[in-house]
Amino acid sequence: MNSTNTTNQARPNYTVPLITITLLFFMWGFITCMNDILIPYLKKLFDLTFVESMLVQFCFFGAYFLGSLAYFAISYYKGDPINKVGYKKGILSGVVLSSVGCILFYPAATFSVYGLFLGALFVLGLGFTILQITANAYVSLLGTEDSASGRLNMTQAFNAFGTTIAPILGGYLVFGPGGDHNITAEATRIPYLVFAGILLLVAVLIYNVKLPSFQTEETEQGGLGALKFPQLRLGILGIFCYVGGEVAVGSFIISFLELPSITGLTEAVSKNYLAMYWGGAMIGRFLGAISLNHSISASKKAIYMVLTAAAVFLLIYSIVDLTFGQMSFFLVFLALNFAAFLIGKSAPARTLALFASINVILLLSTMFSTGEMAMYSVLGIGIFNSIMFSNIYTLGIAGLGKYTSQGSSLLVMAILGGALVPLIQGVLADSDFGVQKSFIVPVFCYLYILFFGLYCAKKLKFVEHATTVSGH
Protein backbone atom coordinates (compact mmCIF):
# COMPACT_ATOMS: atom_id res chain seq x y z
CA MET A 1 0.00 0.00 0.00
CA ASN A 2 2.83 2.37 0.84
CA SER A 3 4.57 1.62 -2.46
CA THR A 4 1.34 2.35 -4.35
CA ASN A 5 0.89 5.68 -2.60
CA THR A 6 4.51 6.57 -3.26
CA THR A 7 4.08 5.80 -6.95
CA ASN A 8 0.91 7.86 -7.20
CA GLN A 9 2.57 10.80 -5.49
CA ALA A 10 5.75 10.59 -7.59
CA ARG A 11 4.20 10.27 -11.04
CA PRO A 12 2.88 13.86 -11.28
CA ASN A 13 6.36 15.13 -10.45
CA TYR A 14 8.13 13.31 -13.31
CA THR A 15 6.68 15.19 -16.29
CA VAL A 16 8.13 18.63 -15.56
CA PRO A 17 11.57 17.29 -14.57
CA LEU A 18 11.74 15.22 -17.77
CA ILE A 19 10.81 18.22 -19.92
CA THR A 20 13.41 20.37 -18.19
CA ILE A 21 16.17 17.79 -18.49
CA THR A 22 15.19 17.16 -22.14
CA LEU A 23 15.78 20.86 -22.90
CA LEU A 24 19.23 20.47 -21.38
CA PHE A 25 19.91 17.40 -23.53
CA PHE A 26 19.03 19.45 -26.62
CA MET A 27 21.48 22.22 -25.77
CA TRP A 28 24.44 20.03 -25.03
CA GLY A 29 23.76 17.98 -28.16
CA PHE A 30 23.83 21.16 -30.23
CA ILE A 31 27.06 22.46 -28.71
CA THR A 32 28.78 19.05 -28.87
CA CYS A 33 28.03 18.71 -32.58
CA MET A 34 29.54 22.14 -33.17
CA ASN A 35 32.88 20.34 -32.89
CA ASP A 36 32.22 18.82 -36.33
CA ILE A 37 32.00 22.37 -37.66
CA LEU A 38 35.03 23.55 -35.69
CA ILE A 39 37.27 20.78 -37.07
CA PRO A 40 37.22 21.89 -40.76
CA TYR A 41 37.09 25.54 -39.65
CA LEU A 42 40.20 25.33 -37.44
CA LYS A 43 41.95 22.98 -39.88
CA LYS A 44 41.79 25.63 -42.59
CA LEU A 45 42.29 28.60 -40.27
CA PHE A 46 45.52 27.21 -38.75
CA ASP A 47 46.55 24.96 -41.70
CA LEU A 48 46.41 21.77 -39.61
CA THR A 49 46.90 18.10 -40.46
CA PHE A 50 44.10 15.63 -39.78
CA VAL A 51 45.80 14.54 -36.56
CA GLU A 52 46.23 18.13 -35.37
CA SER A 53 42.61 19.01 -36.19
CA MET A 54 41.41 15.94 -34.26
CA LEU A 55 42.90 17.50 -31.12
CA VAL A 56 39.54 19.29 -30.99
CA GLN A 57 37.85 15.99 -30.13
CA PHE A 58 40.85 14.85 -28.07
CA CYS A 59 40.66 17.83 -25.70
CA PHE A 60 36.87 17.91 -25.56
CA PHE A 61 36.34 14.21 -24.89
CA GLY A 62 39.60 13.87 -22.97
CA ALA A 63 37.97 16.15 -20.40
CA TYR A 64 35.26 13.52 -20.00
CA PHE A 65 37.88 10.96 -19.03
CA LEU A 66 39.77 13.16 -16.56
CA GLY A 67 36.60 14.60 -15.04
CA SER A 68 35.00 11.17 -14.64
CA LEU A 69 38.21 9.70 -13.26
CA ALA A 70 38.29 12.41 -10.60
CA TYR A 71 34.62 11.81 -9.84
CA PHE A 72 35.13 8.06 -9.48
CA ALA A 73 38.15 8.53 -7.21
CA ILE A 74 36.19 10.91 -4.96
CA SER A 75 33.14 8.64 -4.88
CA TYR A 76 35.25 5.57 -4.12
CA TYR A 77 37.25 7.06 -1.27
CA LYS A 78 35.01 9.83 0.09
CA GLY A 79 31.51 8.82 -0.98
CA ASP A 80 29.41 9.66 -4.02
CA PRO A 81 29.39 13.49 -4.48
CA ILE A 82 26.03 13.47 -6.28
CA ASN A 83 24.51 11.38 -3.54
CA LYS A 84 25.71 13.99 -1.03
CA VAL A 85 24.71 17.21 -2.81
CA GLY A 86 21.80 15.89 -4.90
CA TYR A 87 21.19 15.64 -8.66
CA LYS A 88 19.85 19.17 -8.98
CA LYS A 89 23.02 20.84 -7.66
CA GLY A 90 25.12 18.45 -9.72
CA ILE A 91 23.26 19.34 -12.91
CA LEU A 92 23.45 23.08 -12.16
CA SER A 93 27.21 22.93 -11.60
CA GLY A 94 27.62 21.17 -14.95
CA VAL A 95 25.55 23.77 -16.80
CA VAL A 96 27.44 26.71 -15.27
CA LEU A 97 30.86 25.19 -16.02
CA SER A 98 29.76 24.51 -19.60
CA SER A 99 28.78 28.16 -20.02
CA VAL A 100 32.25 29.19 -18.78
CA GLY A 101 33.79 26.99 -21.47
CA CYS A 102 31.68 28.75 -24.11
CA ILE A 103 32.73 32.18 -22.81
CA LEU A 104 36.40 31.18 -23.15
CA PHE A 105 35.94 30.99 -26.93
CA TYR A 106 35.88 34.80 -26.96
CA PRO A 107 39.54 35.30 -25.95
CA ALA A 108 40.56 32.27 -28.05
CA ALA A 109 39.02 33.84 -31.15
CA THR A 110 40.25 37.33 -30.28
CA PHE A 111 43.90 36.26 -30.00
CA SER A 112 43.54 33.55 -32.70
CA VAL A 113 45.55 30.93 -30.78
CA TYR A 114 44.78 27.25 -31.43
CA GLY A 115 45.85 26.29 -27.91
CA LEU A 116 43.27 28.65 -26.39
CA PHE A 117 40.54 27.04 -28.49
CA LEU A 118 41.62 23.64 -27.18
CA GLY A 119 41.60 24.98 -23.61
CA ALA A 120 38.06 26.32 -24.02
CA LEU A 121 36.95 22.96 -25.41
CA PHE A 122 38.52 21.19 -22.42
CA VAL A 123 36.58 23.35 -19.92
CA LEU A 124 33.40 22.87 -21.96
CA GLY A 125 34.02 19.12 -21.89
CA LEU A 126 34.41 19.15 -18.10
CA GLY A 127 31.02 20.82 -17.76
CA PHE A 128 29.40 18.26 -20.03
CA THR A 129 31.11 15.50 -18.03
CA ILE A 130 29.18 16.52 -14.94
CA LEU A 131 25.98 16.68 -17.01
CA GLN A 132 26.55 13.21 -18.41
CA ILE A 133 27.12 11.73 -14.97
CA THR A 134 24.11 13.42 -13.39
CA ALA A 135 21.50 13.86 -16.12
CA ASN A 136 21.70 10.39 -17.71
CA ALA A 137 21.51 8.65 -14.33
CA TYR A 138 18.72 11.01 -13.26
CA VAL A 139 16.59 10.18 -16.30
CA SER A 140 17.13 6.46 -15.75
CA LEU A 141 15.82 6.86 -12.18
CA LEU A 142 12.64 8.75 -13.17
CA GLY A 143 10.61 5.55 -13.39
CA THR A 144 11.02 1.79 -13.41
CA GLU A 145 14.28 0.11 -14.38
CA ASP A 146 12.77 -1.90 -17.24
CA SER A 147 11.54 1.30 -18.96
CA ALA A 148 14.78 3.24 -18.44
CA SER A 149 16.01 2.61 -22.00
CA GLY A 150 12.79 4.07 -23.42
CA ARG A 151 13.03 7.25 -21.32
CA LEU A 152 16.68 7.76 -22.06
CA ASN A 153 16.08 7.20 -25.78
CA MET A 154 13.47 9.94 -25.71
CA THR A 155 15.72 12.50 -24.03
CA GLN A 156 18.60 11.42 -26.27
CA ALA A 157 16.31 12.01 -29.27
CA PHE A 158 16.12 15.70 -28.38
CA ASN A 159 19.88 15.63 -27.84
CA ALA A 160 20.07 14.37 -31.42
CA PHE A 161 17.73 17.15 -32.56
CA GLY A 162 20.38 19.56 -31.31
CA THR A 163 23.09 17.69 -33.22
CA THR A 164 20.92 17.77 -36.35
CA ILE A 165 20.43 21.53 -36.56
CA ALA A 166 23.96 22.35 -35.33
CA PRO A 167 25.69 21.67 -38.69
CA ILE A 168 23.19 23.93 -40.49
CA LEU A 169 22.81 26.80 -38.03
CA GLY A 170 26.31 26.43 -36.59
CA GLY A 171 27.86 26.18 -40.04
CA TYR A 172 26.15 29.40 -41.06
CA LEU A 173 27.19 31.18 -37.84
CA VAL A 174 30.85 30.14 -38.16
CA PHE A 175 31.40 30.12 -41.94
CA GLY A 176 28.81 32.74 -42.81
CA PRO A 177 26.95 32.92 -46.13
CA GLY A 178 30.27 32.66 -47.97
CA GLY A 179 30.76 29.05 -46.87
CA ASP A 180 34.29 27.76 -46.33
CA HIS A 181 35.73 30.67 -48.34
CA ASN A 182 34.78 33.07 -45.55
CA ILE A 183 37.04 31.99 -42.66
CA THR A 184 38.06 34.51 -40.01
CA ALA A 185 39.53 34.03 -36.56
CA GLU A 186 36.71 36.03 -34.94
CA ALA A 187 33.88 33.91 -36.36
CA THR A 188 33.32 31.88 -33.19
CA ARG A 189 33.18 34.76 -30.70
CA ILE A 190 29.52 35.77 -30.91
CA PRO A 191 28.04 32.26 -31.48
CA TYR A 192 29.66 30.83 -28.37
CA LEU A 193 28.71 33.86 -26.27
CA VAL A 194 25.12 33.22 -27.34
CA PHE A 195 25.49 29.54 -26.35
CA ALA A 196 26.80 30.61 -22.95
CA GLY A 197 23.81 32.91 -22.45
CA ILE A 198 21.32 30.17 -23.35
CA LEU A 199 23.00 27.71 -20.97
CA LEU A 200 22.78 30.22 -18.14
CA LEU A 201 19.07 30.72 -18.87
CA VAL A 202 18.61 26.94 -18.73
CA ALA A 203 20.42 26.96 -15.36
CA VAL A 204 17.96 29.56 -14.05
CA LEU A 205 15.05 27.41 -15.27
CA ILE A 206 16.43 24.28 -13.59
CA TYR A 207 17.07 26.21 -10.38
CA ASN A 208 13.40 27.19 -10.22
CA VAL A 209 12.01 23.74 -11.06
CA LYS A 210 11.36 21.25 -8.28
CA LEU A 211 13.28 18.05 -9.05
CA PRO A 212 12.58 14.79 -7.17
CA SER A 213 15.44 13.64 -4.93
CA PHE A 214 16.99 10.18 -5.30
CA GLN A 215 19.62 10.41 -2.58
CA THR A 216 20.24 7.15 -0.73
CA GLU A 217 21.76 6.36 2.64
CA GLU A 218 25.36 5.21 2.19
CA THR A 219 27.16 2.47 4.14
CA GLU A 220 30.78 1.35 4.17
CA GLN A 221 31.56 -1.03 1.31
CA GLY A 222 34.82 -2.76 0.46
CA GLY A 223 36.06 -4.32 -2.76
CA LEU A 224 35.68 -2.88 -6.22
CA GLY A 225 32.37 -1.09 -5.66
CA ALA A 226 30.55 -0.70 -8.97
CA LEU A 227 33.31 -2.55 -10.82
CA LYS A 228 32.25 -5.85 -9.30
CA PHE A 229 29.38 -5.98 -11.81
CA PRO A 230 30.47 -7.64 -15.10
CA GLN A 231 27.83 -5.84 -17.19
CA LEU A 232 29.32 -2.52 -16.06
CA ARG A 233 32.91 -3.54 -16.83
CA LEU A 234 31.97 -4.62 -20.35
CA GLY A 235 29.66 -1.61 -20.74
CA ILE A 236 32.54 0.77 -20.05
CA LEU A 237 34.37 -0.49 -23.14
CA GLY A 238 31.05 -0.49 -24.98
CA ILE A 239 30.58 3.26 -24.34
CA PHE A 240 34.23 3.83 -25.31
CA CYS A 241 33.69 2.11 -28.65
CA TYR A 242 30.29 3.65 -29.34
CA VAL A 243 31.26 7.28 -28.65
CA GLY A 244 34.58 6.77 -30.41
CA GLY A 245 32.93 5.29 -33.49
CA GLU A 246 30.12 7.84 -33.67
CA VAL A 247 32.40 10.86 -33.17
CA ALA A 248 35.05 9.56 -35.58
CA VAL A 249 32.51 9.04 -38.37
CA GLY A 250 30.90 12.44 -37.78
CA SER A 251 34.28 14.18 -37.62
CA PHE A 252 35.36 12.83 -41.01
CA ILE A 253 32.12 13.12 -43.00
CA ILE A 254 32.84 16.58 -44.42
CA SER A 255 36.42 15.64 -45.39
CA PHE A 256 35.16 12.31 -46.78
CA LEU A 257 32.51 13.92 -48.97
CA GLU A 258 35.07 16.41 -50.29
CA LEU A 259 37.06 13.54 -51.85
CA PRO A 260 36.81 13.58 -55.70
CA SER A 261 36.21 9.81 -55.74
CA ILE A 262 33.17 10.22 -53.46
CA THR A 263 31.24 13.39 -54.32
CA GLY A 264 33.72 16.30 -54.35
CA LEU A 265 31.20 18.42 -52.42
CA THR A 266 32.17 21.71 -50.79
CA GLU A 267 31.78 22.31 -47.06
CA ALA A 268 28.76 24.51 -47.69
CA VAL A 269 26.89 21.55 -49.24
CA SER A 270 28.36 18.66 -47.23
CA LYS A 271 27.30 20.23 -43.91
CA ASN A 272 23.70 19.49 -44.97
CA TYR A 273 24.56 15.82 -45.36
CA LEU A 274 26.30 15.93 -41.98
CA ALA A 275 22.99 17.15 -40.57
CA MET A 276 21.35 14.06 -42.08
CA TYR A 277 23.88 11.82 -40.31
CA TRP A 278 22.91 13.32 -36.95
CA GLY A 279 19.26 13.57 -38.02
CA GLY A 280 19.24 9.82 -38.53
CA ALA A 281 20.25 9.39 -34.89
CA MET A 282 17.35 11.65 -33.90
CA ILE A 283 14.81 9.60 -35.86
CA GLY A 284 16.18 6.33 -34.49
CA ARG A 285 16.00 7.58 -30.91
CA PHE A 286 12.39 8.68 -31.24
CA LEU A 287 11.56 5.28 -32.73
CA GLY A 288 13.57 3.61 -29.96
CA ALA A 289 11.64 5.50 -27.30
CA ILE A 290 8.42 4.13 -28.78
CA SER A 291 9.73 0.61 -29.43
CA LEU A 292 11.13 0.26 -25.90
CA ASN A 293 8.03 1.71 -24.22
CA HIS A 294 6.40 -1.25 -22.50
CA SER A 295 3.09 0.53 -21.93
CA ILE A 296 2.18 0.59 -25.65
CA SER A 297 0.72 -2.41 -27.49
CA ALA A 298 2.58 -3.88 -30.47
CA SER A 299 -0.01 -2.67 -33.01
CA LYS A 300 0.01 0.88 -31.66
CA LYS A 301 3.81 0.88 -31.61
CA ALA A 302 3.93 0.17 -35.34
CA ILE A 303 1.50 3.02 -36.11
CA TYR A 304 3.26 5.49 -33.82
CA MET A 305 6.68 4.58 -35.22
CA VAL A 306 5.59 5.08 -38.85
CA LEU A 307 3.94 8.41 -38.09
CA THR A 308 6.91 9.59 -36.02
CA ALA A 309 9.42 8.59 -38.69
CA ALA A 310 7.45 10.49 -41.35
CA ALA A 311 7.09 13.59 -39.15
CA VAL A 312 10.76 13.75 -38.17
CA PHE A 313 11.87 13.08 -41.76
CA LEU A 314 9.78 16.06 -42.90
CA LEU A 315 11.30 18.13 -40.08
CA ILE A 316 14.82 17.31 -41.28
CA TYR A 317 13.76 18.04 -44.87
CA SER A 318 12.60 21.49 -43.77
CA ILE A 319 15.94 22.18 -42.07
CA VAL A 320 18.54 21.04 -44.60
CA ASP A 321 19.23 22.75 -47.91
CA LEU A 322 18.68 19.61 -50.01
CA THR A 323 16.03 18.56 -52.51
CA PHE A 324 13.70 15.65 -51.86
CA GLY A 325 15.57 13.70 -54.54
CA GLN A 326 18.86 14.21 -52.71
CA MET A 327 17.25 12.95 -49.49
CA SER A 328 15.13 10.13 -50.89
CA PHE A 329 17.83 7.50 -50.24
CA PHE A 330 17.21 8.09 -46.56
CA LEU A 331 13.78 6.45 -46.83
CA VAL A 332 15.50 3.12 -47.49
CA PHE A 333 17.37 3.41 -44.19
CA LEU A 334 14.15 4.37 -42.41
CA ALA A 335 12.50 1.18 -43.65
CA LEU A 336 15.53 -0.90 -42.68
CA ASN A 337 15.63 0.74 -39.25
CA PHE A 338 11.93 0.02 -38.70
CA ALA A 339 12.45 -3.63 -39.68
CA ALA A 340 15.43 -3.91 -37.32
CA PHE A 341 13.32 -2.65 -34.41
CA LEU A 342 10.68 -5.29 -35.18
CA ILE A 343 13.30 -8.04 -35.33
CA GLY A 344 14.82 -6.78 -32.06
CA LYS A 345 11.38 -7.21 -30.43
CA SER A 346 11.84 -4.26 -28.07
CA ALA A 347 14.72 -6.01 -26.25
CA PRO A 348 17.56 -3.50 -25.61
CA ALA A 349 20.46 -5.98 -25.92
CA ARG A 350 19.18 -7.76 -29.01
CA THR A 351 18.36 -4.48 -30.75
CA LEU A 352 21.82 -3.17 -29.86
CA ALA A 353 23.54 -6.22 -31.37
CA LEU A 354 21.45 -6.00 -34.54
CA PHE A 355 22.13 -2.27 -35.05
CA ALA A 356 25.87 -2.78 -34.49
CA SER A 357 26.01 -5.52 -37.13
CA ILE A 358 24.27 -3.24 -39.66
CA ASN A 359 26.78 -0.46 -38.99
CA VAL A 360 29.68 -2.84 -39.58
CA ILE A 361 28.22 -3.61 -43.02
CA LEU A 362 27.65 0.08 -43.79
CA LEU A 363 31.24 0.95 -42.80
CA LEU A 364 32.65 -1.76 -45.04
CA SER A 365 30.57 -0.32 -47.88
CA THR A 366 31.91 3.15 -47.01
CA MET A 367 35.47 1.87 -47.30
CA PHE A 368 35.15 -0.11 -50.52
CA SER A 369 32.51 1.79 -52.53
CA THR A 370 32.77 5.05 -54.45
CA GLY A 371 30.45 7.88 -55.38
CA GLU A 372 26.93 8.02 -54.00
CA MET A 373 27.00 4.45 -52.67
CA ALA A 374 29.87 5.33 -50.34
CA MET A 375 28.15 8.59 -49.34
CA TYR A 376 24.83 6.87 -48.59
CA SER A 377 26.59 4.17 -46.57
CA VAL A 378 28.43 6.56 -44.26
CA LEU A 379 25.32 8.71 -43.73
CA GLY A 380 23.18 5.66 -42.93
CA ILE A 381 25.35 4.86 -39.92
CA GLY A 382 23.72 7.68 -37.95
CA ILE A 383 20.25 6.16 -37.81
CA PHE A 384 21.65 2.89 -36.43
CA ASN A 385 23.78 4.73 -33.87
CA SER A 386 20.54 6.04 -32.43
CA ILE A 387 19.77 3.71 -29.53
CA MET A 388 23.33 2.63 -28.79
CA PHE A 389 24.34 5.05 -26.05
CA SER A 390 21.12 4.74 -24.08
CA ASN A 391 20.99 0.94 -24.45
CA ILE A 392 24.65 0.41 -23.53
CA TYR A 393 24.26 2.85 -20.63
CA THR A 394 21.12 1.29 -19.16
CA LEU A 395 22.40 -2.26 -19.67
CA GLY A 396 25.68 -1.26 -18.00
CA ILE A 397 24.03 0.15 -14.86
CA ALA A 398 21.23 -2.43 -14.69
CA GLY A 399 21.03 -3.88 -11.20
CA LEU A 400 23.70 -1.60 -9.69
CA GLY A 401 21.37 -0.16 -7.02
CA LYS A 402 23.31 2.18 -4.71
CA TYR A 403 26.29 2.05 -7.08
CA THR A 404 24.29 3.66 -9.93
CA SER A 405 26.02 7.08 -9.77
CA GLN A 406 29.46 5.53 -9.36
CA GLY A 407 28.78 3.22 -12.29
CA SER A 408 27.51 6.19 -14.29
CA SER A 409 30.78 8.06 -13.68
CA LEU A 410 32.72 5.06 -15.01
CA LEU A 411 30.55 4.87 -18.11
CA VAL A 412 30.96 8.60 -18.70
CA MET A 413 34.73 8.16 -18.21
CA ALA A 414 34.60 5.81 -21.19
CA ILE A 415 33.49 8.72 -23.39
CA LEU A 416 37.27 9.03 -23.69
CA GLY A 417 36.66 7.00 -26.84
CA GLY A 418 35.52 10.22 -28.49
CA ALA A 419 39.00 11.65 -27.83
CA LEU A 420 41.14 8.69 -28.88
CA VAL A 421 39.31 6.94 -31.73
CA PRO A 422 39.10 10.03 -34.01
CA LEU A 423 42.78 10.70 -33.27
CA ILE A 424 43.69 7.14 -34.30
CA GLN A 425 41.61 7.50 -37.45
CA GLY A 426 43.33 10.82 -38.10
CA VAL A 427 46.73 9.09 -38.02
CA LEU A 428 45.53 6.60 -40.64
CA ALA A 429 43.93 9.38 -42.72
CA ASP A 430 47.26 11.25 -42.84
CA SER A 431 49.07 8.04 -43.86
CA ASP A 432 48.95 6.02 -47.07
CA PHE A 433 45.63 4.56 -45.92
CA GLY A 434 43.91 7.84 -46.73
CA VAL A 435 40.58 9.12 -45.44
CA GLN A 436 38.41 6.40 -46.95
CA LYS A 437 40.33 3.36 -45.69
CA SER A 438 40.74 5.00 -42.27
CA PHE A 439 37.13 4.03 -41.53
CA ILE A 440 38.47 0.60 -40.59
CA VAL A 441 38.94 2.08 -37.09
CA PRO A 442 35.22 2.48 -36.28
CA VAL A 443 34.59 -0.99 -37.78
CA PHE A 444 36.39 -2.53 -34.80
CA CYS A 445 34.35 -0.31 -32.46
CA TYR A 446 31.05 -1.62 -33.74
CA LEU A 447 32.27 -5.21 -33.71
CA TYR A 448 32.81 -4.90 -29.97
CA ILE A 449 29.35 -3.36 -29.50
CA LEU A 450 27.94 -6.36 -31.35
CA PHE A 451 29.69 -8.63 -28.85
CA PHE A 452 28.42 -6.60 -25.88
CA GLY A 453 24.84 -6.76 -27.14
CA LEU A 454 25.03 -10.53 -27.58
CA TYR A 455 26.57 -10.92 -24.10
CA CYS A 456 23.84 -8.89 -22.40
CA ALA A 457 21.09 -10.68 -24.34
CA LYS A 458 22.39 -13.93 -22.86
CA LYS A 459 23.42 -12.86 -19.36
CA LEU A 460 20.98 -10.09 -18.39
CA LYS A 461 17.83 -12.12 -18.82
CA PHE A 462 15.92 -10.09 -16.23
CA VAL A 463 16.29 -6.90 -18.29
CA GLU A 464 15.47 -8.52 -21.62
CA HIS A 465 12.53 -10.47 -20.24
CA ALA A 466 11.00 -7.54 -18.42
CA THR A 467 11.21 -5.25 -21.44
CA THR A 468 9.99 -7.85 -23.93
CA VAL A 469 7.02 -8.97 -21.84
CA SER A 470 6.01 -5.39 -21.08
CA GLY A 471 6.31 -4.49 -24.76
CA HIS A 472 3.57 -6.96 -25.67
From TrEMBL:
It is found in: Cell inner membrane. Keywords: Cell membrane, Membrane, Transmembrane, Transmembrane helix. This is Sugar MFS transporter. Residues 17-461 form the Major facilitator superfamily (MFS) profile domain. CDD domains: MFS_FucP_like. The lineage of its organism: Bacteria, Pseudomonadati, Bacteroidota, Flavobacteriia, Flavobacteriales. It is a multi-pass membrane protein. The chain crosses the membrane at residues 21-42, 54-77, 89-108, 114-139, 160-178, 190-211, 232-254, 274-290, 302-320, 326-344, 351-368, 374-398, 410-427, 439-457. GO terms for molecular function: transmembrane transporter activity. One of its GO terms (cellular component) is plasma membrane. It comes from the Bacteria.
